[in-house]
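question for whoever is on the cluster today: can someone run the full assembly for these? four chains, 294 residues total. i dont have access anymore since they changed the login thing
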Amino acid sequence: MFMGHHIHKIDARDRLSIPVRMREELYRGGREHPIITVGFEKCLFLYPMERWKNFSEEAESLKTSREDSRKIERFLFANASECPFDSQGRILVAKHLLDYAQLNKDVVIIGVRNRIELWDKSEWETQSMLIRKTVLDVSENIDGFSI
Amino acid sequence: MFMGHHIHKIDARDRLSIPVRMREELYRGGREHPIITVGFEKCLFLYPMERWKNFSEEAESLKTSREDSRKIERFLFANASECPFDSQGRILVAKHLLDYAQLNKDVVIIGVRNRIELWDKSEWETQSMLIRKTVLDVSENIDGFSI
DNA sequence: GTAAATTATGGGTAGATGTGGGTAAAAGTG
DNA sequence: CACTTTTACCCACATCTACCCATAATTTAC
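^ ran it for u. tokens below:
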């Protein structure tokens, strides 16, 4: 399970080191490299290969005959790529992914249960403020959900 | 079950020792480390892992394809982190959590049934005064609660 | 009431981790 | 093929963290 958040820096060569804990979790269940792809909202998703395979099996059931399905398939798969680590535990973030999530130097790496998300720091700050407000309102009105 | 309150000090290295009773209770039902996360109001929540897993199973049913679900997932997981004890029975409180709850040197550690809460001492004093004043009114409005 | 044990608090230090950069091999380009 | 650009691997170093020990304060045992 992925949790927590860390602020790391992307260096001048577009490398980003991933916290050790998360690195280990990314490789649990096999030695195959994780997958990085575009995320919903302005962020990137990072999955263990095992999870990615599950996902793409689920996607199998999407009807290619439906336009929406084709769109989602193209979005997620065309932008996905294998994501090996260098010997220092860093990944190399491709240019088109940097652009998509508008990552600058400071990147927030957050664990979200079965995936990792990469956010530009300032983007995450506004986003998490917004979330905090929404969740507090929402949680007052939702039964069976308590923290 | 967690009860009572203690006043402890956070040291210069952001370590906070947890009362032994509570420490034992935090590890009941397994040897996995507890989870610390942001709480409602200006405080932090500390859960036994077992309890935390219940939450995350509830969250399991959330569909990542829905925006509200993504928000809740992010809120729950990004703010949480594993919380191991050092050999002296202290936890290390991350900077962002200190900021969130505005903890200074004196911290009040209170037991609240299935969780522990960490409050800044002065914040807790005002809060508990407020609670004392309003508890009579509040209890009128809550069903399924009798003492 | 006193001694012994437990608990809270402070700090030193070796090793782990995050960050930056050099360089040679590999890949792309004309 | 010669040249430029990219990539993979190496080392360097500053910072952080986990673990250790020390001591003060408190509780428990007798």
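summary bc i know u wont read the tokens: Residues 8-9, 11-13, 15, 17, 19-20, 88-90 of chain A lie near DNA strand C (CB under 10 Å from a C1'). The first helix of chain A runs from residue 20 to 26.
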